[in-house]
Design a protein that fits this description.
242 residues; alpha/beta; 5-stranded parallel β-sheet; 5-stranded antiparallel β-sheet; 15 strands; globular
């Protein structure tokens, strides 16, 4: 059974206890910690590396939206589920790429749908053909569905509300988040070089020092140079070198 490491953030103890009780009914959920304010939420996310953070919005000093904006800057970004009594913040929450928005008091059926959504993002089903090879990535463009071999993809990046997928011959746009695509392509040689960029390491041809510890990356057959955040440089070099 694959588990979902979960952190609950709420300034009210009883709210944390209620959500912990409800989440305890799902066998895939592993509660790794709780936080009672925004500062503690960021610290515990760094320490515990949860897969998912259930995050209250209205908290003193640092509210949930501010916490979420800090979390998406981390090297390992958890999935964010807002759990709040205030439905009016939903639009802003989804602009931060929240996976879901739960309104108190919690509806158990809605919570089940949220857990299903979390599991689909973290543990996507990869089709297997008769030869045992992993399936292709389905990409919809101009009303047609294109099936791409992962080996065809050079890199992909997030551009506002869409993710752009770049191959040697074409550019595609999809609504799927970069994080979800990263999960789907985990068995292949893809690596995040920046919070908004995912590259196929098969095509890396050169790394060039840039400034403040960052690098620029070049891919075979492309003139475009991609920026590698200094937070990812060490791991990238380890992946590339024998």
């Amino acid at each position: 059974m694959r588990t979902v490491r979960t952190l609950i953030v709420d300034d009210e103890r009883y709210a944390r206890e209620e959500l912990a009780y409800l989440l305890g009914k799902f066998s895939s959920i592993q509660l790794v910690g709780e936080a009672e304010n925004g500062e503690a939420a960021v610290l515990k996310t760094l320490q515990l590396q949860p897969d998912v953070v259930f995050l209250d919005v209205e908290m003193p000093k640092m509210n949930g939206l501010e916490v979420a904006k800090s979390l998406v800057e981390l090297k390992k970004v958890p999935l964010i589920i807002f759990a709040t009594a205030y439905p009016q913040f939903a639009a802003e929450a989804f602009r931060i790429n929240a996976v879901d928005y739960l309104v108190k008091p919690y509806d158990e059926e809605q919570l089940k749908q949220t857990i299903d959504r979390i599991e689909k993002v973290l543990f996507p089903a990869m089709p297997v053909d008769s030869s045992g090879m992993l399936g292709k990535l389905a990409v919809e463009a101009d009303g047609e569905i294109n099936y791409l071999l992962p080996q065809e993809i050079l890199y992909m990046y997030r551009d506002e509300k869409v993710t752009k997928i770049i191959t040697h011959t074409q550019e595609y746009e999809v609504r799927t988040t970069l994080k979800e695509l990263e999960s789907r392509l985990e068995p292949f040689s893809f690596f995040r070089i920046h919070k908004g960029y995912l590259v196929n390491l098969m095509y890396v041809s050169r790394l060039t020092p840039w400034f403040n510890g960052a690098y620029q990356l070049e891919l075979e057959g492309l003139d475009t140079k991609l920026s590698v955040s200094r937070n990812y440089v060490k791991d990238l070099r380890q992946r590339l070198e024998l």
